[in-house]
């Protein structure tokens, strides 16, 4: 798979580009995606990232089943670890990552979307965690992230049955933030990214970092993390400029 990266202003779009296999991930594709996400994460001129799939059929149809069919446990562990590294990279880059789900998001494809901060779907999108129908459990985080997003009961039903969820249901259960016509999906993701990019970079990164531990610790622990992030913001230029701009009834000019 080639991973295409394009830029419009401070917004980067990463496109999973292997449409002949519905953008399924093999080892090379995962390594390329990991490299691209890390590179964008380190680029201070990038303020938001959109992740989407090439073509009009799939975001990603999951891990490459042809490649996985030959794995022994050792190869499976390495492949699982690489997929998890991709999802952690998406989760830990300072910029918000928006999944623009333009078709099938199955298995590892759905899990990559789950690691993103926000998910928009085309009305043609279909989600599933069908791993149990292939004789394996999910391996790139669905068991951890899906319950946090849609609740334990719904996640258990989807993971244990492997059934498909269309865009309307995905919106209802909170799996996606919004649904758009296919031709309106990328423009909507661009608008959302631009809205985020118009805010303070450091405040957005701090909020993303604090939300990342919302479910990893108990509520009192999470509140302490939030308090640290909140207090630290008060040593920054962004805080001074943001509040000064509000009080002076003008738009902020971020440093
Ligand atoms: N891998 C490889 N090729 C795939 C693929 C996939 N996941 N999905 C589709 N393709 C290929 C098809 O083989 C076909 O290629 P050709 O035969 O033409 O060469 C081409 O893409 C078009 O697909 P179809 O002809 O099947 O298209 P349809 O419209 O009929 O069906 C579909 C679309 C998405 C319903 C169907 O392709 C499908 O069911 N695909 C499989 C989806 C799936 O089950 N995905 C989950 C994969 S499992 C772990 C590590 C990782 C994972 C788990 C554990 N550990 C280490 C613990 C991750 C697991 C997964 O992601």
TrEMBL record:
Assigned EC number: 4.2.1.55
GO biological process: fatty acid beta-oxidation
InterPro entries assigned to the protein according to its UniProt record, in alphabetical order: ClpP/crotonase-like_dom_sf (IPR029045), Enoyl-CoA_hyd/isom_CS (IPR018376), Enoyl-CoA_hydra/iso (IPR001753), Enoyl-CoA_hydra_C (IPR014748)
Keywords: Lyase
UniProt enzyme class: lyase
Gene Ontology molecular function, alphabetical: hydro-lyase activity
The keyword Cytoplasm belongs to this UniProt entry's keyword annotation: no
One Pfam assignment: ECH_1
Family to which this protein belongs: Belongs to the enoyl-CoA hydratase/isomerase family.
PANTHER family, A to Z: ENOYL-COA HYDRATASE, MITOCHONDRIAL (PTHR11941:SF54), ENOYL-COA HYDRATASE-RELATED (PTHR11941)
UniProt protein name: 3-hydroxybutyryl-CoA dehydratase
Organism: uncultured Thermomicrobiales bacterium
Organism taxonomic ancestry: Bacteria, Pseudomonadati, Thermomicrobiota, Thermomicrobia, Thermomicrobiales
């Amino acid at each position: 798979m080639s991973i295409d990266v394009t830029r419009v202003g401070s917004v980067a779009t990463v496109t999973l580009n292997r449409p002949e296999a519905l953008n399924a991930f093999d080892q090379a594709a995962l390594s390329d995606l990991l490299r691209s996400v890390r590179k964008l994460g380190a680029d201070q001129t990038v303020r938001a990232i959109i992740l989407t799939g090439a073509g009009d059929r799939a975001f990603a149809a999951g891990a490459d089943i042809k490649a996985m069919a030959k794995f022994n446990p050792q190869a499976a562990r390495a492949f699982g670890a690489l997929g998890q590294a991709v999802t952690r990279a998406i989760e830990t880059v300072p910029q918000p990552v928006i999944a623009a789900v333009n078709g099938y998001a199955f298995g590892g494809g759905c899990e990559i979307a789950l690691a993103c901060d926000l998910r928009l779907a085309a009305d043609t999108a279909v989600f599933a965690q069908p791993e149990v129908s292939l004789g394996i459990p999910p391996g790139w985080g669905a068991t951890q992230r899906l319950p946090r997003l849609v609740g334990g009961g719904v996640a258990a039903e989807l993971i244990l049955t492997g059934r498909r969820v269309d865009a309307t249901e995905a919106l209802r259960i909170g799996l996606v933030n919004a649904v758009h016509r296919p031709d309106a999906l990328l423009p909507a993701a661009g608008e959302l990214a631009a809205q985020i990019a118009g805010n303070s970079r450091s405040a957005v990164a701090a909020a993303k970092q604090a939300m990342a531990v919302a479910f990893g610790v108990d509520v009192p622990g999470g509140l302490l993390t939030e308090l640290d992030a909140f207090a630290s913001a008060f040593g920054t230029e962004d805080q001074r400029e943001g509040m000064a701009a509000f009080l002076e009834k003008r738009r902020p000019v971020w440093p």
